[in-house]
Write a structure and sequence with these properties.
13 helices; 41% helix; globular; alpha/beta; TIM Barrel
Length: 409
C-alpha cells in the first residue's frame, strides 16, 4: 500500500481563528518537509483560483456560506518547483488543476510544458509531477475567466454543456502535451442529447430554448484556433503523469487513446464504482503506461488520528471522534449553510478515525493492499504542530500494524 498526503491550504476559520496567508504557506512547507523526511510518497495539493469569499456576492454564488478562502494555491507548477527545492524524495501532485479557466487547455498545456522542461534539466532528477486535471469544481472560477454559457439553452443545460466542454479541453490538453501540432478542426464537435439529462422534462425545456425538434443539439467548439504547437516541446515526459479528475467512465477511457492517463478519486466514491473503474481501466489504460495498477487511482481519505501517549486508548478514540465531528460538521455547514447530521455521518464513514489500532484496522477492512491513499491531515486544522504529530504517528504507529509495507511512489 502506498501512502501520500493531501494538502488543501484552505484559509478558513477554525475555532474562531483564521491564519494569515503567510502562516498558511509556512505551515504547508513545514508539513511537506516533514512528509519528505517521514517517507510519504507524493504531496497532492489542491489548486484553486480567485476569491471564494468575494464570489459570495456574485449573482450565482457557488459556495455562498463558505467563510474564508477555499484554497490559496493558484499555481501547482510554481508550488512544485519550491517543494522540489526544499525536499529530497517526495513527489508532487495537483489535486486538481483546472484546465478550463485561465486561458483554457492551450494555456495550461504550455504552463505544464514549461515547468517540465525546467524541472528535467538535471539528468539525475527522477521526481514526478502527478498532473491531476479537471474542469473545476466551483464554476465561479470558470465564469470570471469567460467560460460560461453562451446562450439561454446552454445556461439551462450547463452541467451537460460543461461535461462536453471538458471532453474537448482534455483532448486538446493531452495532445499538445504529447508534442502534437493540431488545430481546433482536429477536435470533435459534440452534441447534447436526451441521454445528458435526468428527465424528459429537462430535455424538452432545453430543446425548446435551442429552437430545435431534433434528437441532438450541436455544441459549437469552445476553443477555436489554427494549427499550433506548444513550446518548449523537447522535455522528459516521464516526469509528468496525467491523472484525470472525472467520474465519467467513457471519458476516462477516451483520454487513454492519446497517452497513459490515470484516475483521480475522492473518498466518498462507492466501493462498487471503485472496483468497476479498476476493471475497466485494466483494459483501457494506454499501452505506453504498462499494465494498470490499483495505485494509479489515488483515493483521498480524511484522517483523524489521536496517538497522545498521555491518554488511554479509549480516551484517544473519543478525542479523535470529537475532532472528526467538529471538522466534518464545519465543512458541510460551509458548503450547504446548514449542519446536516446525515452528511456528517456519511463523511465519517469514509474517514479514518480513532487511535493507531483503530485506524490500522479500518485500513485493513476498507482498502485493498495495493491501494494508494492520499491522507488528509490538515482538514479544517491550522495547528501545524498537531498536523505534523499526526503524520509522524501514522508512520510510526499505524503503518507497522499493517500487514503490507509502505511502497515508494
Amino acid at each position: 500500500m502506498k501512502f501520500d498526503l493531501f494538502f488543501s491550504i484552505s484559509q478558513t476559520p477554525v475555532n474562531g481563528h483564521t491564519p494569515d496567508e503567510a502562516t498558511m504557506f509556512r505551515n504547508f512547507f513545514a508539513q511537506v518537509e516533514a512528509a519528505d523526511a517521514l517517507g510519504y510518497g507524493t504531496a497532492w495539493v489542491a489548486e484553486s483560483h480567485y476569491s471564494s469569499e468575494v464570489q459570495k456576492a456574485h449573482h450565482k454564488p457557488v459556495v455562498p456560506h463558505w467563510e474564508g478562502e477555499v484554497g490559496l494555491n493558484g499555481d501547482i507548477c510554481q508550488l512544485a518547483t519550491r517543494v522540489f527545492a526544499r525536499t529530497e524524495r517526495i513527489e508532487v501532485g495537483s489535486a486538481v488543476m483546472n484546465i478550463v479557466c485561465n486561458g483554457g487547455p492551450l494555456a495550461q498545456a504550455e504552463r505544464v510544458a514549461t515547468f517540465a522542461a525546467y524541472h528535467g534539466l538535471d539528468p539525475e532528477e527522477r521526481r514526478r509531477l502527478h498532473l491531476g486535471f479537471s474542469a473545476g469544481r466551483f464554476d465561479f472560477m470558470n465564469r470570471v475567466t469567460g467560460v460560461d454559457a453562451r446562450n439561454t439553452w446552454e445556461d439551462a443545460a450547463w452541467p451537460a454543456v460543461k461535461g462536453k466542454l471538458f471532453w474537448e479541453a482534455a483532448e486538446i490538453f493531452l495532445r499538445l502535451l504529447k508534442g502534437e501540432t493540431l488545430s481546433s478542426n482536429d477536435i470533435p464537435e459534440y452534441t447534447i442529447t436526451r441521454a445528458d439529462f435526468r428527465s424528459d422534462e429537462e430535455w424538452h425545456k432545453v430543446r425548446d430554448l435551442a429552437g430545435t425538434k431534433g434528437d441532438a443539439i450541436p455544441l459549437p467548439r469552445r476553443w477555436s484556433f489554427e494549427a499550433t504547437k506548444v513550446i518548449p516541446c523537447d522535455w522528459r515526459r516521464e516526469l509528468m503523469l496525467p491523472v484525470i479528475g472525472s467520474h465519467d467512465p467513457n471519458l476516462q477511457e477516451y483520454v487513454n487513446r492519446f497517452s497513459p492517463v490515470q484516475v483521480f478519486n475522492l473518498s466518498i466514491t462507492k466501493p462498487e464504482i471503485i472496483e468497476d473503474t479498476h476493471r475497466r481501466m485494466t483494459a483501457a489504460y494506454h499501452r505506453d503506461g504498462g499494465s494498470w495498477q490499483r495505485s494509479f487511482m489515488p483515493r483521498t481519505v480524511f484522517v483523524f488520528l489521536n496517538a497522545d501517549p498521555s491518554k488511554s486508548p479509549e480516551a484517544q478514540r473519543a478525542a479523535a471522534q470529537e475532532e472528526a465531528r467538529a471538522a466534518l460538521g464545519a465543512y458541510w455547514k460551509a458548503l450547504d449553510g446548514t449542519l446536516d447530521p446525515k452528511k456528517v455521518e456519511g463523511a465519517a464513514d469514509n474517514a479514518l478515525i480513532g487511535n493507531a489500532d483503530d485506524i490500522a484496522r479500518q485500513i485493513r477492512e476498507r482498502f485493498h493492499p495495493d491501494d494508494r491513499l492520499m491522507l488528509w491531515f490538515d482538514f479544517f486544522n491550522h495547528d501545524n504542530a498537531a498536523v505534523i504529530r499526526s503524520m509522524e504517528a501514522f508512520m510510526a504507529e499505524v503503518v507497522p500494524k499493517l500487514e503490507t509495507a509502505v511502497s515508494p511512489s
